[in-house]
Amino acid sequence: MSVMKVIANIDRRIYYGAVFVLTAIMLLFPIGLPLKVSPEVKAAYNMIDSLEPGDIVIINFCITASGYNELKGACNSMISHLFSKPGVKVIFTATSDQAPIMMEEIIANNGELMTGHSSYPYYEIQGKQYGVDYINMGYYPGLFKWIAALSADLRGSLGNNDWYGIDVRQFLDSNGIMEARDIDLVLSFDSDDGAGDFMRYFYLEYGTPVMQSMIGVMVAGAKVEYNAGNYAAIVPSIRGAAEYQFLADYPGFALTQMDAFSIIQFFLIFLMVLGNIGYYGYTRNHKEAKK
């Protein structure tokens, strides 16, 4: 049997099996392929890295279960980086009813329980303590209606108690958080357009910078807003998360996933070349010989 005939008649199940094996190997034993960092992700890194003591940041989760795995890498690495900045205060909010449980998981992933406490919300993240350096206000219904109300009446729309019923007025008062213009940055993790609403009511109204990390299907629209100057920075999907982890020296799963994606893309190109060799070297000639 000729080599060309063998190539032309490779069982497609071998291809599927090879893809599965290669993916598994790359996920279990990542090799750290080079990664080019895009300007928009570099802008996100620089903006968080430039935060100063006393700055107030809203971290909003507009995430559903279907988009969580795609955004988890960005959530972990960006929040870890942000919490490493001394003196920065953080308010967690959620504009998706599915988001609070994911928000709690991210907080737990990046922190540890404070001394004397055994459950949420008392986690310490890189020296930042709950109630002193950050609070979790949980889920607010209404999406853009609540964000519009938040921009008009920040304290009234936040309320006095956090997601767990704890009074947070001392935190808000001691940090001078009274109105929307007191917020220095909004970061929204989105599988719906939470950042878009913050952009309309916080950036366009008060000039507050808004950053978005979003799932893949939202990237095209987010890039339009970024190029127009409406978003200060964007971190698109798993690829953006991997770039951010590379910049932040955060050994996260997004970097591992990009190894697998890259190797499989190279392998698929190889298979296309191989298939064409088999077709032109044997299949087409065999068909013409039968005529």
Q: How would you describe this protein?
A:
This protein has helices spanning 3-8, 12-28, 39-49, 65-83, 99-110, 144-152, 154-158, 169-174, 194-206, 219-227, 237-247, 253-290; strands at 56-62, 89-94, 112-113, 123-124, 134-139, 185-190, 210-214, 233-236. The chain is α/β, with parallel strands linked by helices. It has a single domain (39-257), classed as Rossmann fold (3-Layer(aba) Sandwich). A 6-stranded parallel beta sheet has the order 5-2-1-6-7-8, with helices on both faces. A two-stranded antiparallel sheet has the order 3-4. The longest helix has 38 residues, at 253-290. The radius of gyration is 24 Å and the shape is elongated. The chain starts with a helix and ends with a helix. The mean pLDDT is 92.
Structural class: alpha/beta
Strand fraction: 5-15%
Cα Rg: 24 Å
Unreliable parts: none
CATH class: Alpha Beta
CATH topology: Rossmann fold
Terminus-to-terminus distance: 21 Å
Number of strands: 8
